[in-house]
Amino acid sequence: MAFVAPIRVEVDAAPETVDGLRPLALVNYGHLTVMQVRGGRTRGLDLHLARLDAANRELFGRGLDGDRVRDHIRHALGDDIADATIRLVVFRPYDAGDESIMVIVRPPGGMPAAPQGLRTVEYQRPVAHIKHVGAFGQIYHGAAAERAGFDDALLTGPGGVISETSIANIGFFDGGSVIWPDAPLLAGITMQLLEPALAARGIPSRRRTVRVADLPAFATVFVANSGGVAPVRRVDDVTLPIDPGLVGTLFEAYESVPWDVI
């Protein structure tokens, strides 16, 4: 799993320092969101802010001001960076009152255009509904999948029940609707944006249990994260069908989502 060097890192709207990063390095407790920024805008800004606020209430017992988050992102981008990948991490500096906000600015990214290959692994993220910093397991399995020639790991539970991949949601098109796994998972921002965009195009979404053995029966399987969407061509040694029409609709639905000013 490739790690892209940051262009800029700020903690509480100031350049990173050893003292500023020490609490996160030693305690490894916090939450985050990742967004693509183009021209100082991002998709689903309200959803990102709601995610951060809800996670902060659960982890630290209070909400997180959205205006403060936006101010920190704008400060980190400055006047010289219009397009970027933003990783925003919220953590508490020891027993201090306010949580700290770290903004990591990396070059803009996106989902690979080629159909994806996934390797199944029996693993589920702890506290899966929160996008949190304790990500050793998913990084480990994602990197192992890449070394084996796949693009990512497909996380499953007992009986082959599918939840998500190490870095994305996974959806299944049954010919009439998109099915998202009814399993412990993170409700990704792109997943939340796709649901109404697809519904507007006559493709409803629903939840149900999906097992690895069910995959060949679907017309198309796809993944979605902050980088976009991509079809899945194979899982382990099984080749999956891809419906070009549905893939085109997925791309069009995603591209139709407006960009919000940060």
From TrEMBL:
SUPFAM superfamilies: D-aminoacid aminotransferase-like PLP-dependent enzymes. The keyword Transferase applies. One of its GO terms (molecular function) is transaminase activity. Keywords: Aminotransferase, Transferase. This is Aminotransferase class IV family protein. It comes from Actinoallomurus spadix.
